[in-house]
Amino acid sequence: MVGKENLRAEDFNLCFEKLMMLAGSGNGGQKGKGLQLERGVITEWKDIPMELLLQILSLLDDKAVIKASGVCRGWRDSICLGLTRLSLSWCSKDMNSLVLSLAPKFTKLQTLILRQDKPQLEDNAVETIADFCHDLQILDLSKSFKLSDCSLYALALGCPNLVKLNISGCSAFSDSALAYLASFCRKLKILNLCGCVKAASDTALQAIGNYCNQLQCLNLGWCENVGDVGVMSLAVGCPDLRILDLCGCVQITDDSVIALANRCPHLRSLGLYYCQNITDRAMYSLAQSKMNSRMWGSVKSRNDEDGLRTLNISQCTALTPSAVQAVCDSSPALHTCSGRHSLITSGCLNLTSVHCACAVQAHRTANSFLHAAH
């Protein structure tokens, strides 16, 4: 209830009085003597230890936490020093002003979610974040259409510990600014560039492959400037890549997929929707690489989780059933059966005969049952 109200200091004081009454009635009926703790007696809000205060605030929503920081000086100091996660996605207006006022106070933030339904953030807000929040590891700036390269340059210099960055839909960023960011933020593991049509180019991907060697998840959906040179650079430089979305990257060919198959043994999810230059050659390379990894891998690691778990080849109309079936056979976690679709083939009417391992097993079981009945 507290987290959903537009709280004032008086609201917190009233809650505190009720808390003290409950504490007093549970302490031998000695009302008014406060809540006994090892450190002393709590008689006012300011007496609450920082650790306990942060546990209480963890039960509230982010709007209430911001209100709580204005209750008193002690609370403000505790929250500013102890708060590590904050989301302002609920803010439908004046988010930019709110960030400008909060970033200099909440300097220990490690996670900051600034997802927007309509663009509000401007470069000065991101620059302020970079100036004060040097511990930031997770940042979501999706749909920040107003931001320019200045924001990426600031983050590169001020937030080198970024592990997860979402700038999907930030269509104004350039590839040179993204390459600059990659050269400083070398700990990146998750990067969402979906819709970053200017930033996601072969030049930027070469920089990411060169500097961000820990990268595990990359979304390049609908980045039409991405080609084989960029993807091949990723494959060489990011061997731990596990999730890659290339949906709508219409320039890539089999060479990209072959490089990924050969260089990224941990690849588990691959999106190739509308990549119509992809042919059977790419599918056979995926199948062969997964078969090789299962053959040479330890016995302990051989299970249904080996190989691809998700593959989207919708609208890849050049593919034939035999090539796609080879991928299915090499990756038991790919499913075509009802309720478990992880091999997505929408628009490929010639692939209706492709079946996963469990579907084949079900067919064999049914045939055995019929033979036994006869």
TrEMBL record:
SUPFAM superfamilies membership: F-box domain, RNI-like
InterPro entries (UniProt xref): F-box-like_dom_sf (IPR036047), F-box_dom (IPR001810), F-box_LRR-repeat (IPR050648), FBXL15_LRR (IPR057207), Leu-rich_rpt_Cys-con_subtyp (IPR006553), LRR_dom_sf (IPR032675)
Any one GO BP annotation for this protein: proteolysis involved in protein catabolic process
Keyword Repressor part of the UniProt annotation: no
Ranges of residues in domain F-box: 45-79
Keyword terms, alphabetized: Ubl conjugation pathway
Segments traversing the membrane: none
GO cellular component: cytoplasm
Name this protein carries in UniProt: F-box protein like
